[in-house]
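Title: Comparing notes on inverse folding

I've been comparing how different people in this forum approach sequence design from structure. To keep things fair, I'm posting one structure and asking everyone to reply with a full sequence. Here's the target:
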């Protein structure tokens, strides 16, 4: 075995034995990802949305539709001065106890909105980057969209 191979083997054995701790950045990223989990939430899957007749720009605004068995979340994203404006509507499920609340999440922050009686909500000036919408409904599991990369509004979903 060459000297390089021995050093490589010893390093691999140390890692395998758990002697070397994970780098701090890796541990921090794992904790941050874990904090984004929503136990018990239903993930709404993307549904294709046809462009309205006469729409001029393929990129702005960008409409995303997400569907779960008893809920639909429509999210419209628009770039504005280097930020993102979000407008949307939630539909489906029983509304006996009201429309619930909406949480618009980025990797580092959250915005809470209360939808109107027709399910509409909006938020402006959000940072460009990854975004997800969660609909918390009274007495029912939360419904969450998958994460959307708002840096690429003019391209297909990530």
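Reply #1:
Here's my take.
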């Amino acid at each position: 075995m060459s000297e390089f191979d021995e050093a490589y083997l010893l390093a691999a054995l140390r890692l395998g034995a758990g002697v070397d701790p994970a780098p701090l950045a890796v541990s921090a990223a794992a904790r941050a990802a874990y904090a984004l989990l929503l136990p018990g939430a239903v993930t709404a899957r993307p549904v294709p949305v046809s462009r309205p007749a006469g729409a001029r720009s393929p990129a702005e605004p960008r409409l995303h539709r997400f569907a779960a068995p008893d809920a639909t979340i429509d999210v419209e994203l628009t770039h504005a001065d280097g930020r993102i404006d979000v407008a949307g509507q939630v539909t489906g499920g029983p509304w006996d106890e009201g429309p619930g609340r909406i949480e618009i999440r980025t990797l580092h922050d959250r915005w809470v909105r209360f939808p109107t009686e027709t399910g509409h909500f909006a938020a402006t000036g959000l940072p460009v980057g990854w975004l997800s919408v969660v609909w918390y409904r009274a007495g029912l599991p939360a419904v969450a969209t998958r994460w959307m990369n708002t840096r690429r509004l003019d391209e297909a979903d990530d």
